[in-house]
Write a structure and sequence with these properties.
Helix content is 62%, strand content 0%. With 184 residues, the protein is mainly alpha-helical.
């Protein structure tokens, strides 16, 4: 009498989660092996999305550094056009207040951009903590870019921040970071 669920008499499959065995005692190709459940299938190569996110971070941070550097030079050199433009939008601020605000703003931005550059290097090496910190950094930068979106460069940085966040979590990136990354 044949089993209606198994009309060809094949042995039943192993319980869920157990690797199947071939006649020589080795797990069959494609069998589930919990030790390799999250390991990347390409020998640990860094996903292109992770590389792209790091490159976007480097480019965006470099643009921010250059922009903030020019801003500092304009303030420290006492360029009248900068102060006139600022005074129109921030009525009631003195030249000293504008200068102090700008130096503090630019200083924080420069440190932030330098930290993002370093984080991108750690992301390239597969440090999962750096991915999280870089994600938070880019997410906080998004509203700041929106606040200054009247200029072209902040809009470009806004787009790069969003793209970097997405690229860090799509494709093979998650598995690569879970496996501890690779230095390739």
């Amino acid at each position: 009498m044949t089993d209606p669920n198994n009309p060809f008499g094949a042995p039943p499959p192993p319980p869920y989660g157990q690797p199947t065995q071939n006649p020589y005692g080795q797990p069959q190709q494609g069998a589930y092996n919990p030790a390799f459940a999250h390991a990347p299938q390409d020998g640990g190569r860094r996903p292109g999305t992770v590389t792209a996110a790091a490159v976007l971070t480097w480019v965006g941070s470099t643009i921010a550094l250059l922009s903030l550097g020019f801003l500092l030079v304009a303030v420290l050199a006492g360029v009248d056009e900068y102060y006139e433009g600022f005074e129109e939008s921030a009525s009631g601020w003195t030249r000293d207040q504008i200068s102090t605000f700008t130096v503090i703003f630019a200083g924080i931005g420069i440190v932030w951009a330098l930290v993002a550059i370093v984080l991108a290097f750690f992301v390239m090496r597969g440090a999962a903590w750096a991915r999280i910190v870089l994600t938070i950094s880019a997410a906080v930068a998004i509203p700041l870019c929106l606040l200054t979106a009247l200029a072209i460069l902040p809009v470009l940085n806004l787009i790069m921040c969003i793209a970097a966040i997405v690229l860090l979590y799509v494709g093979r990136g998650n598995a690569w970071f879970r496996a501890g990354g690779q230095r390739r």
